Structures are given as structure tokens and as C-alpha cells.
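Example protein as discussed:

>
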Amino acid sequence: MIEPAYVSPAYGCSKALDDYVLLGRSGLRVSPLCLGAMTFGADSPNAEGCALGCDFETSKKIFDLYYSKGGNFIDTANIPYPFAGGHSEKFLGDMIGERRSNLVLATKYTLNLGHIMPQNGADKRRECLSGNSRKSLVENLDASLKRMQIGYIDLLYIHAWEYRTPVEEVMRALDDCVRCGKVLYCGVSDTPAWVMSKANTMAHFKDWTPFIALQTRYNMLERSLENDLLPMAVECGLGIVPWGVIAEGFLTGKHKQDSIQPTARTGRIN
């Protein structure tokens, strides 16, 4: 995790999982390496013929190893793909047990939840189950809490900015969730710097809960956040939690140029 508000000469050095850091401008102590639970839960092959996810036993081994080393920061989401058919939150709910108080659980809302919400009969309508509206937030949040069998979310991200819901509706709705105890902290994922600046400025003047974290793509091949998101995060006191840090495995050396199948994702690297 990048700590923009606390850059020091030791920036970039390796840390143990129990060498906890403060997330953004908050008192929340998290491991410097967050465990992404995207692959928790077996799934059927996607459109590209790739089956994502691992079964419960394998997922639990990963979780237990991370926790045994002092890790406490877990990231998941409520969407069907690529978060293993929506099973990621369910698996985590079955793994947490008595360790709940020692964990910082992060999940997200915005993207369409209709695929994994119970449907009555043939009614497949889901127009209110996506986006950043207050209704979408309430429906998604309650469903996530139920799947993970917990009473509150430590860090709730907006998964993406959809340009339809007014900023003031988003920030006030999130603040209501914090004040009623269902959410402790708020973050945002893959959102422009100007939106975050506006949102946190509004929260400051209206005494609402501000964003403390930004999740965005960042690796050796994708460094565009350094242009505007990183300076904004430093100024606003946001912790940056990168995703795609090994570029879907391309920075590990396991892929060879002649074996890469052309897809929307690999096209950025080819």
C-alpha cells in the first residue's frame, strides 16, 4: 500500500505484515500488504475461456497463512465477475469466525448485483441494484453484510464513478451509513481526481464522512496515477491501495509473448 501522506526516505522498503500503517488521514491501522480475495470462490469459465477462482479449502489456506503472518487487511467486492461468481464475500464470511475484531474488511458497491441477488420468480429486473444512488448503496450494503455474516464493514469503496448520481447524494448517503454504524470508513475506486477533490471538500464543509482511501490500478507498466491522482491523494490525505500491481501476472515472468492470447486486457501490454 502506498502511504502518500507519510512518504519517507525508507519509502518502498519491504515491511512485515504486522508492521501496520495508518490508512490515509485516519487512525485505521492496516497491514502494508492487502490480501485481495478476488479469486476466493470457484467460478465457471469466462468469455475468454478462463476459469477464475479457487475452492473453499484453497481459499482458506491462503487466508489462514496471511492472517498467521499478522495480516489484517482484506479486500473483496460484491460483483459476480471477476470476484468468483459473487462467492468471495460468502467464503470470507465462513472464514472470519472469532477473528472479526482483528480484521479490516473492505468491500465495494456500484456495479450490477442482480446476478447474485435472490430473484422472485421470473422477475429479473435490477435497475436499482447498480450505480451509486442511495438505494443502490442500501441494497448492496445490506446484502454484503448478510453474505459475510458481520454487523459492519470497515472500509466501503465506491467501485466506480458513474457520473449520474450527484456527489452530494453519494457523500450524504455514505455518511448516513457511517453514522448508523454499518460502515466505519469510506473509500473510492477508479475515480477521477477532480471528483474526489470535490467530494472531500464538500464533506469537509458539511461535516460528512470523507474518503480516506483510493483504490486504483498501479504497476511498473501503468503509472498514470502519478500525473494527478497521487498529488491529489497527498494533498487530501488519502491512502492509495493499488490493484493490478503485477499486471495480471505479466510482471511475474510466467507469460511468454508467443503464448498471450489477444484480449482487451492483454492489448494494453502487447
